[in-house]
Amino acid sequence: MEIQYLDWNNSNQILNKAYEAGLFVLIIGPKGTGKTSLVRDFAKNKSVNLQSINFSLRTRESHLIGTKTLTDGTVSFDEGILIKSMKKGDMLYLDEINSAEADVLLRLDEALDDRRQIVLKESTGEVIKAKENWYVIATINPLTHSGTKELPPQILSRFPVRIRLEYPPENIELEIIKKYVSGEHESEIIQAIKLANILRQAAAVEELFYSPSLRETIAFGKLLDKGMSSKEIAFFVFGNVYTQWGNIEYQKVSDIITSMFGN
């Protein structure tokens, strides 16, 4: 089932203006706020091919540029996603770019400057120049997220349009969840959203270690469809994860769930 993206803060309109102006976009926000869904929806609306890469500590230059391979005695060069997208003029989605290592960002920066080109030093030394319609959107998580690093100023400058994506208002989050559930569970879902926001606010001021995302509130609604009780779901979806940080952390959240969903 394909779910239509609910563009509650007009991010698609901003993306469209930036796209028309040829300005790359950086989307900033915590996990589970719909950053990837927004990018996919925008690419679909523009009817362009979307290529994406999710950055981590394991991402290497070769994932972007490519690598030499030996097959039946013949050396060839398998192009990476950056080179492929530049040659084809595809939209390139750089997910969680602030999880990348410095050497990877440095190589990426070469392609993102105003010349939109890169020297293929790993192979023939050919200069790869991007097609005119090549376009790049990147996302970053806040620095409070594990594995994230501050982006260098030169990389930030390559993305002059920045969209801040936060968790939606409660009424909008309810509408999003309704797209994924079939039953009539509005009051229970509203309560789950309130719980999620309490936990998010506590995490924002570092009273808790984890902030639940839209994925969790959607999961809550889906499990209601399967006949589970609200309190049972609240522990499985929201509560139990806090045991990772010990019993004191778990007990804090357990008390909140019990106060909201009863004994």
Structure notes:
By secondary structure, the chain is an alpha/beta fold. It has helices at 11-21, 35-46, 61-64, 81-88, 102-112, 153-157, 170-178, 186-204, 214-225, 230-239, 247-261, and strands spanning 25-28, 50-54, 66-71, 74-79, 91-95, 117-119, 127-129, 135-140, 161-164. β3 and β4 (74-79) form a beta hairpin. The longest helix is centred in the C-terminal third of the chain and has 19 residues, at 186-204.
CATH superfamily of the largest domain: P-loop containing nucleotide triphosphate hydrolases
Which segments are poorly predicted (pLDDT under 50) over 5 or more consecutive residues?
Answer: none
Instruction: Please give the CATH architecture of the largest domain.
Output: 3-Layer(aba) Sandwich
Overall number of domains: 2
Head-to-tail CA distance between termini:
36 Å
Structural class: alpha/beta
Report the β-strand fraction as a percent range. 15-25%
What is the tally of beta strands? 9
Give Rg in angstroms: 22 Å
Q: H/E order of the elements?
A: HEHEHEEHEHEEEHEHHHHH
Number of helices: 11
User: Quick check: average pLDDT?
Assistant: 91
Outline the secondary-structure elements.
Layout: H1 11-21, E1 25-28, H2 35-46, E2 50-54, H3 61-64, E3 66-71, E4 74-79, H4 81-88, E5 91-95, H5 102-112, E6 117-119, E7 127-129, E8 135-140, H6 153-157, E9 161-164, H7 170-178, H8 186-204, H9 214-225, H10 230-239, H11 247-261
Parallel strand pairs: 1-8, 1-9, 2-5, 5-8
Antiparallel strand pairs: 3-4, 6-7
Helix pairs in contact: 7-8, 7-9, 8-9, 9-10, 10-11
